[in-house]
Amino acid sequence: MSSMPDAIVKQDAKYLADNARRRKQFSLWFYFLCVAIALISVVILVVLMISIWSQGQSRLSSDLLTRSHSELEIERSGMWPAILGSLFVCGTCALVALPLGVGTAVFLEEFQPTNKLLRWIHGFVQLNISNLAGVPSIVYGLLGLTVFVYMFNVFGQIRVNESAGMEIMGYKHFYQVLTLEPGHVVFVPQSDPTKRQTTFDEPFQAVDPDGNSIEISIWTPGTPKPSDPAIRRQTVRAGAIGGTITERSWYYFRLPFDKSFLSGGLTLALVILPIIIISSQESLRGVPSSLREASMGLGATTWQTVRDVCLPAALPGIMTGAILAMGRAIGEAAPILVVMGAAVAKSTGPKHLMDDAVTMPVLIFNWAGRQQDEFKELSAAAIIVLLVVLLLLNSTAIYIRHHVQKAQS
Amino acid sequence: MPRNRKRAIGCVALFSSLMVAMAGCGSQTETSTTEPGSGTAASNLTGTIKINGSSTVQPIANAVKEEFAKLYPDVTVSVDGKGTGNGFKMFQDKETDISDASRPIKPGEFEACKENGVEFIEMPVAYDGLTIVVHPKNDWVDTLTVDQLKQIFVGADAAKKWSDVDSSWPEETIEIFSPGTGSGTYDYFREVVIGKSEAALRNDMNLNEDDNVLVNGVAGNPYAIGFFGVAYYEESKDKLKAAKIVNPKDEQAYLPTPENIASGAYAPFSRPLFIYVSTASLPRAEVATFVSYFLDNAPTLCERVGYVRLPDEIMQRAMNNLDAENAGTHYIDADGNSRSGAVADIYQPENLTK
């Protein structure tokens, strides 16, 4: 009994009270510190928003949403082609990255092998994916350049006046020949696609825009030149050169992809793939194993369990990850600059699968670097539009997620 | 369960159809309405023209494309701006029809073009001036000679303090702002102050590709100095002071005003901007039409985007070269060495090297 230390037997009331007060104070300080830290990020965001808004709001007009980049009427520049381009690129990206990412996550989480070698491979893949999530996106840009834009040159290089790569469908080649009427050309269907240019010395058949055949005559310099515009439109100079032009349908398909929106979308898919895989894995891991065991206990196969139990339960989490990843994709400029180039003065969205596109981040990057104040204001306004588009896409996704969750419960 | 699946499938279908709908709705924008009374029906010329190269020339090419599109709406012109060096790389690989350049072609690039069988016509389209800027409070620098610039910008033993250049100047550290080493602007400045050697400028400068950063950097330090294209200076005149540069020929100091640049008085820091057109592409109707339109309109359009027009005589020489399809460069002599000097002296028919 008497061997107990004094401090335990006779407790110092003052010391205890002081200690309690100190601890409570410290706890209060810590609470305020946490609140302050949380507020800092909000304040930074609000300051950014306000500065962007004050810079850009004067340029938020219908011109900005309907017209394209203009060098000569800066104040009437717009970003419609860039909005379309971004939607196309991100649409491609989503269609590729979501199935691949979720599929990979399901394989890694639900189909874990028991064989030693396969387990090692499984671990190796897992390790790589975790590392890939930290790779800077410009590296993916360079990868996309090699894999999608040039395809290691296995399908031939795309060269002006020489080859258009390996064209697969949706194209018609014509020779384009200038007539005697300035600015008017006629088209001759191409029979031999390897011959990129041809010379016309004999009267020949051409097609008009409706596809009807028209007879084209030859004018030799030195002989009287026809003066009637209608005749001049059907006459070409002897020795006129026809260069190849290509009429492309919307499903025009060619290898390699060159600097098309498809290349951009596929590259972005690579950028966000690790993020999607990791977040999907996390949400699959969050599904209680009792659910899996119950399903297995009823005699379901692994695939049935995944399809009807795990995936529906993990879907909200998977969608959250997908939304975050798509938010990153729509604002990613570096890989797009590498893969699709820095052209901004395109007046339309993409018209066929192999068409190039302007995207919003690239346009903002270009405008922000211009010396004219109008362009700087425009870039701020374009940032606002980008954020609004992002919010719209995200709210659609969140609505769908909500809907799916409700349907399950 | 099946109902859930149907829902999920429905959602995916909804999302993808949304995308397709986006694609479906006419992606046509009204670029501009042709002025009534112009009377010319739009041409049915079509085709695709690929342009890449200097981001300095990009605005000029964009402006030409914009006006060209009003007359020839079916021709697709894509104007990229990956930098002069990258542009030439793509040009020699036959990836582009036209290469924009903010400096003449280099011997190495010319060799590569020859090896790949790429012939081109070299045409200057506008002037750009390099402005050397200091802080408005800098009252000791009014004029600078090329030698003084050498002292400030070149070598490991370059001037650390202003007093190292001129003992009457303040004993303060010089802070230097320069465009990135990949830009034609940096190349051009380097060539003027160092000459033909491949030596680099001093390595303790603040390099930035974004000219706005350079403007703000110089505007933020009374002891700073920097350089960039004249178009940027025009926009930030209120924040910066341009140094007069002593022309080595007549020993007079000149400001980079449009008049001085156009007359060639602002030497050696006024530079021509070029387009290089592949002769293999010229037989194509759309390329020929575009290039001659480019030359006809470059003087007026380049002024509208902040550059200085070339004298009519030089534009005429460029048109003659285009007409006669004189392939080759004027800036490299027969021995493969670069020529440097005023564009009026060098861009002469007798200097053409095939």
Automatic annotation (TrEMBL), chain A:
Keyword list, A-Z: Membrane, Transmembrane, Transmembrane helix, Transport
Signal sequence bounds: none
Keyword Transmembrane: yes
Alphabetical list of CDD domains matching this protein: TM_PBP2 (cd06261)
Claim: Transcription regulation is one of the keywords in the record: no
Superkingdom to which the source organism belongs: Bacteria
Residue ranges of domain ABC transmembrane type-1 in the record: 83-396
Topology with respect to the bilayer: Multi-pass membrane protein
Subcellular localization, as worded in the UniProt entry: Cell membrane
Any one biological process term the GO annotation gives: transmembrane transport
GO CC annotations on file: plasma membrane
Positions of transmembrane segments: 28-53, 82-108, 129-152, 260-278, 378-400
Family: Belongs to the binding-protein-dependent transport system permease family.
Protein name: Phosphate transport system permease protein PstA
